[in-house]
Amino acid sequence: MLHIPGEAPKVFQQSIDAFLQELRAAGRSRDTIRGYGWHLYRFARWLENERQAHTLADVTRENALAWMSNLWEHYQPSTIKQSGQALRAWVRWLYARGEIDKNFAKEIPVPHVGISPQRTLTTAEVRRLFAVCDPSTPKGARDIAIMAVLLDTGLRASELIRLRLEDWQESTRKIMVLGKGRKKASVWCSVECAEHLQRWLAHRSKIAKPEEDHLFVAVGGYTPGKALTRRGLRVILQKLGKQAQVEDVHPHAFRRTFAVMALQAGVPTRVLQIMGRWEDLKMVERYSQALLAEQVWKTVQGQGKSPLALIGQDKQHGK
Questions:
Q1: How buried is residue 202: exposed, middle or buried, by Cβ count under 10 Å (0-12/13-18/19+)?
Q2: Nearest CA to 163 among 250, 230, 256, 254?
Q3: How many structural domains are present in the chain?
Q4: In a domain, 26, yes or no
């Protein structure tokens, strides 16, 4: 069972853990399970402390609505949405098992979360990030290879750290990926990315532990030669961002940048959806809409059609 931060009252925790085990068996991602567990543990503690509830029969519509209302005092809509989704799923599971008398899952409100501006890296920022790495050193070669793969293929953080040596095929430049829901897929990288990977592999052979078969491993730190963790990946990119004076550098910023650069290169949204393995085309359209808006603004401003530019033209003509 995955480790869930914190704990819950015993009767609730046993039920929540059994629910999470079934999610895991059904192939749900580790991130989803951790997120659901974190929210449900908090709900269970709140039930005991604030509602003096001690049995599963106390998982009622009234208590669920009170919990969701309480969240608005402490969290952003995106977090509240995640909590509501977790609670809905657990309620449906409890009802199916006969633990509660009513399935009120649909009555649990889940807020609509609007589309907010997404962080993408500019070409100049990417160049600065690569420039602070020394490819002649194991760490520099690894960090360049990591960024190259993220940028060239759009892999998620969890997908990158799960890569194993056997997943990389140098002759075809193909990478086998274990994605969300444990779905297998293939992606291909450029010649330049392949060269970065091969340079890193030459260093990796001298660093990795004999039993370690993950493609990317720690260089130094507490677990040298062992598989890179998700937290470790995030720390690596944060440090590179600090060195390069680029703010908010994290794995998903590279995935968004992969999407935006592909769109800029003329890749159709449907093709990009396949390349990035997005289940919903709407996710891709978020990037295309933001990019289209930017292009429209630049076109209008560049053609001298902004209000201030037009006012200036009127002055020149004595209007």
A1: exposed
A2: 230
A3: 2
A4: yes
Give the pLDDT confidence score for residue 222 in this predicted structure: 87
Domain limit, last residue, from 107, 138, 156: 107
Contact between 68 and 108 (Cβ < 8 Å): yes
CA dihedral 130, 136, 137, 138 (to 10 degrees): 90
Contact yes or no for 191/122 (Cβ under 8 A): no
Q: At what angle do helices 138-153 and 251-264 cross, to 10 degrees?
A: 50
Residue ending a domain, choose from 77, 107, 137:
107
Q: What is the pLDDT of residue 179?
A: 78
CA torsion sign for 38, 237, 233, 257 is positive
Give the strand order in the sheet containing 168-169: 168-169, 174-178, 184-188
d(CA 256, CA 234): 16
Q: What's the pLDDT at 307?
A: 74
Owner of token pair 């449906």: 92
Residue 309 — pLDDT band, cuts 50, 70, 90?
A: low
